[in-house]
Amino acid sequence: MIKHTAAGLFFIAFSLLPSVAFSTVFDATWSNGLSFQKDLIDTTRPLLGYDENLMVSLKKVNQTDVSFFSDIDYAHGYASPGKHPFEINTAYLEWAGLAKCVDLRLGRQRNYEANTPVYLDGLKVQSTFKDRLVLTGFAGRPLSSRYSNESLVSRVDTTDLDLSLRADYLVLSSRAGIIYQRQMNTGGTLAGHDIGFFVSHDFSEKWYARGNAVYNISSAAIRNFQVTTSYQWSDKLLLDASGSEEAWKIDSSSLFERKIYSEYREGALHADYAFTDKRSGSLGVLLRQFNHDSLGEEISARISVEPVSLMLRQDFGFGGAVTMADISASHRCTRLLGSSISAGLVRYQSPGTGAPTHMAYSSSLSLDLGPETAPWGVNLETQVMRNAFYEYDARAYINTVYRFSKFYK
Fold it and tell me: How far apart are CA 341 and CA 382, in angstroms?
C-alpha cells in the first residue's frame, strides 16, 4: 500500500514541476522495522510490531526553485487508538523565489514558527524585503499526528482553522519579531488566541542572547516566556544558560508514570568542552519547580565524556519522591560494527506518609551494522525493564535504512 501511494505522489510532483527547469535533484530515505515485545506496561501494543517510513524530496532548479517533499509512515502497532496505521506526515509543493522575494508552500506541513507548533493541511506564504523584513503567514486545518506533542492532541482534534502571522525584522546584529496565532473550533468559537514576541542580539562574535514570550489574549495572561544566552569562553569551552516559565507542561517523572503540570519554571546551566578534535565532553545542571495540586521540585545533572554519559535526577513533592540514575556508552568496534549500551535505575515513593518505596531498572544493548558513510544500515536493539508492579518486560527491535540520492541534468 505504501509503495503505491508513494508512486502516486511522485507522479503528481513531477507533473506539477515545470519542464523548463535546468536540473533535478532526487533524495530518498526508506526505513523499516520489526519489533517483538513482551509488554505488560503498555498493554495496547501488540506482541509483534512493524513499521515503514519513506521520505522523498524532489527539486528542480531554475530562476524559480520548485521542490516536492513527502514523509510517509505505515506503522502497525504504533498508531494512536482510533487512528489508521497509514499516515502521511508531510507532503507539500514549494515554490521559492517567485517575483524574487516570495516563497509558497502548499500541502501537509508543520508550522514550527507559531506560538503553538502544529501539523496542518494548508498554505505557507513568506516574503522578504531588502534582506531585513521577513513576513510569514500560515493558514490551514490542524491535524493530530502520531508525532504531535501530547499536550496539543486534544486541542488540535477539535480545531478547524489555524491562522498565524509572523514578522521578523533584522538590524545589524539584532533580530526582533512578533507572532499572532488564532485557532477556531467548529462553529467559529475560539480554541486559541495568542500573540508572541521575541528578540535576539549578538553582543560580539562570542556572546549572544535571546528572549521570547507568549501572551494569551483570551485569558489576558502570559502563557510562557524563555531567556537564553550563550558565551564562547575559548576555542574549546562553550557556556549556555537559560530560564523559562510555562503555564502547562506534560513530562515523565520516571520510567513508569507521567506528570501533568499546570505550571512550571526552570533554570539550566550547560557547558561543552572539546578535549581534542575527536573527543568532547559536557556538563549540564537543571533546576525545575512545578505545581499541580501541590508544589514539587526537581534537580538533575548530566555529565558526559565521549563515549560515556551519566545522568542523575531527584524529584521532590508532587508525584512522590523519585531518584533516577542512567548511564550509557557507545563504541565503534570495527568499520562495519558499532555498539551502544545503557542501564538505568529508579527509586520512587508514592505520595503520602509511610508510602512504600519501589525500585525499577532498565537496560538496553544496540548494535549498528554497516559502515558509517554507507547509504544503508541495520540496527539491532534489545531492552529489558522491571518494576515492582509489572515484573519483567522485554523488547527487541530490528531496523533497516537505505538512502538514495541522484542528480539529473
Answer: 10
pLDDT at 301 over 70: yes
Q: What is the pLDDT of residues 313-369, one digit of tens each?
A: 888 765 567 888 999 999 989 989 999 999 998 887 766 667 777 788 889 999 999
Q: Which of 295, 345, 347 is nearest to 318 (CA)?
A: 295
- Residue 215, φ and ψ in degrees, nearest 5: -110, 125
